[in-house]
Amino acid sequence: MTQQQEKDEFVRQWAREVLGSSYVSKTRPQVWELLDACTTKLVSALMAEEYSPVLAAEVGARLIREHFVGSRALRGTLQLVATGLPGVAGFTCEEVPRERLLALLGALAGGYSRELRERTLGEQEVIRQAVLQAKDEAEEAHRATEARFRAVFASSALGIAIVSLDGTIEDVNESVARIFRTTRESMVDSTILDLVDEGWWHELAEANAELVAECNEHFEVDTRYTVPDSDEEVWTQVTGSLVYDAHGRPEYQVVLYTDITDRNLLKERLSWQAMHDPLTGLANRTLLQSRTESALDQSTPGHRIGLCYLDLDGFKTINDTLGHRVGDELLRAVAQRLHEVVDAEGALAARMGGDEFVVLVPDSGGTRAVLDLVSRFYDAITRPVHVGEHELSASASVGVVERETVGTDLYELQRDADISLYRAKSDGKAQWALFDSEQNAFARQRFRLSAEMPAALDNDEFFVEYHPITWLADGSLAAVHAEVIWDHEDRDIDSAEFLEIAEETGVIIRLGTWMMRQVCEHAMEWVRSLGSAAPIVSVDLSPRYFRAPGLVDEVGRILEETGAPARNLRLSVPESALFDECGDPVDTLSVFVEMGFDFVVRDFGSDYTHLGRLSELPVSTVCVEGDYLNGLAGHRAPEPLSEHLVHSVVSAAHLLGMTVIAAGVRTEEHAARLHKVGVQAVRGEYAGERASALEIRELIDSGEFVGSR
Amino acid sequence: MDQQHSGLAKDVDMETASAARCYDYYLGGAHNFAVDRELAQKVEAQVPQVRDLAQDNRAFLRRAVRYCLDRGIRQFLDIGSGIPTVGNVHEIAQAVDPEARVVYVDNEPVAVAHSRTILDGNDNADVVQAELEDVDGVLDSPEANRLLNFDEPVAVMMLALFHFVPESARPREILRRYHERMARGSYLGFSHLTEDAHAEYMHSLVDLYKNSSNPLVARSRHQIAELLQDFDPVDPGVVYVPEWRPETEEDRWEDPSRSLAYGVVGYKA
Lengths: 709, 269
Known about the structure:
Chain A is of the alpha/beta class. Chain A folds into four domains: 3-126; 156-266, Beta-Lactamase (2-Layer Sandwich), CATH 3.30.450; 276-435, Reverse transcriptase/Diguanylate cyclase domain (Alpha-Beta Plaits); 451-693, EAL domain (TIM Barrel, Alpha-Beta Barrel). The mean pLDDT of chain A is 87. In chain B, strands 1, 2, 3, 4, 5, 6, 7 and 8 form an eight-stranded mixed β-sheet that branches. By secondary structure, chain B is an alpha/beta fold. The interface between A and B is large, with 33 and 42 residues.
């Protein structure tokens, strides 16, 4: 092995001894290079004429600077130098003075440990400084956060309070003091409940308790506070949330106060407007409804409620003749008087619109007490009212309901009050009527039917069938009489009943038109299938329908669209409907006659007013019906008075040149007696059962009915 | 929540051992306190090769940085840099090119303060205190803005870092977001503890670090490859750190798996 090879081997072994005990940022070849230089230094120290510890100490320090800081690095280095360095220098161990070698090792170790101590202390100092610096920075950040919080706290327009978990105020900002018209100092140590009026204690305390118990993350309640020694009311929106400590336990709460007084005033004004009638200042429908509902909610046994519906009589006339300004003044005066009387009794007066008013007695002392109140406000509103130069007297119809709240509901109450008012009005105006279930059952029934009828028309619940009218002389078919039938889903309704309601409510216009069209379609169908054998059809037109504006056009259109010939139809109307108020025949008559219609006067004999002028009209036929006809129906001898009446009515018709038909004839005997007094044709059971248009056609086709005119 | 977002300072906790200062201890440094040494010595008693593996990880950093330097990378982002004892990225890089720029990132205030001291006067290196998960906070920090250009290739170093990121923090997502911001041609240096071999050592480590500021989670080679699926691993792929391009044959361990850590350098194509 050459000297150089010996040295290389020494260096590599040295690298193995020192690498791995601590991290060095050099690669292994770089470490070899470094240790090679160190080896050279040590050799020269070993070989020096005069020994110096400097070189060896430098090598020790260099190892530390390169971060060979592990104890294994020093141990390995010392052992290797002690055993291997003489060989690298070209000697055997025995040839090197022992003292020189030990001194060299000592110097190397001394340099190493001095540098290690320096380095360690240096690093400790650096890390300590780093900790201090980090702490300073954290502290600074805390201070900045704290300062920012303080700035927010102090300058916020929002009131901020720091509150302990038991509700004690620990600190507040200036805004809280301003909102509650006091000073910050005086608020500290009071509680959040001190900042609300008694009525809000419970709500706030409960919300706060739930927050502190961590049931809720925050709370928000609107509260009122009355400033002591003044009437000033402060409304605030109070929002609370919890602040947790480092261990996640609630530490304190932050409560925010927003002054919402102005917002509340506006809200109150808006809500007053939403609940009141602008003309009279009385409650409106919304407020009435809500008060009625809350009165009904009181289900204490024996609790009673009263509801009165009022309609001013003849108000429309006042409006039409004296103008709306006068009408409005009258409404205001009535409203004022109504309010004065009922308000004193704890009742509520409301205006529904137009001339309709309602009085709610939410806590009624009984029917007698409510009727007493009605009579008092009735007196008040009917006293004359002076508007400008006019002295007006209002009169009203009143419907009253008074009953226990248990077992009734809003709908029922309103409906019954409405029915009572309806009864009061139909009994004649300026009346009041108390709801009575028996009396009102009938009214209620009609009420319901009138409500159902328009929908029934839409749903095709009506249909038309025909009663045969036969000549008494030979039993042949004289005509058929149309009847409208309501296929009501619940029960049978007599057509006379619903037609009367339709007449009252005005549905008769739609129903009449519908029926007219049905009849024309059937008549046309008969013309098509039976030709000249097609029967004449008589159809009842109600007085209201007969006078409906546009009726002529409507009927003309129906004829055109269906193609039915007018000569096949007989329009059946009551005598009174043929004449106007002055007793002259109505204008439409001549138009209908021009169109080819003929008329039947129904209920002939019930009214003799226009008898004399009937002959002027295109009427060929009269129909008689009614109880007095039944006097001839029994098995016993005819009842003389009835016989006389029938006789005189029929005679009158004959004198006018009319053909006479009797309705409601059931038996042959009845028919025979009527025939005897001059009745020419009959309908009813005797003449034949009611049948559909198709059945009528089949009956005629089969020869069952012999057509004859 | 990190400092920037909450507006609140992260407290300097000197009561609990820090992984960064323990690591410094394993490397032979004295930038540590009794509390750190106590944990480090406990670890050493259970896992005798812990100093070796810390040093090997540090050597892997050196080789990975050199690898990137050799491929022309001149900007480095070292996340989870810890206490920079010796062989820091800026020392390695600036020894090759004094203009090389380096940004260190750590979430631990003391480590950051320490780095600041070390870097005082070095215009091409700086440190950011931020959380790894706060990707925008890291990449858009004033320091990164000043020193790094993400339109050009960058080397991001995440050594011995992700074994402190539990699944609940969605590590895959974090890596994806860094990948998104890195230019094509960038590199990722990555090392991670594993229990694929010598699980008993790994379990001791996990146990010992459980109550430190930095609990550990070990991952398998497969899991690590999955974490890095956005990157193409350069040769030799995911291997035990001593096996990753050793400078001499002597630097390979007889049993590389005793290093308990995988190393890999990924490339963004």
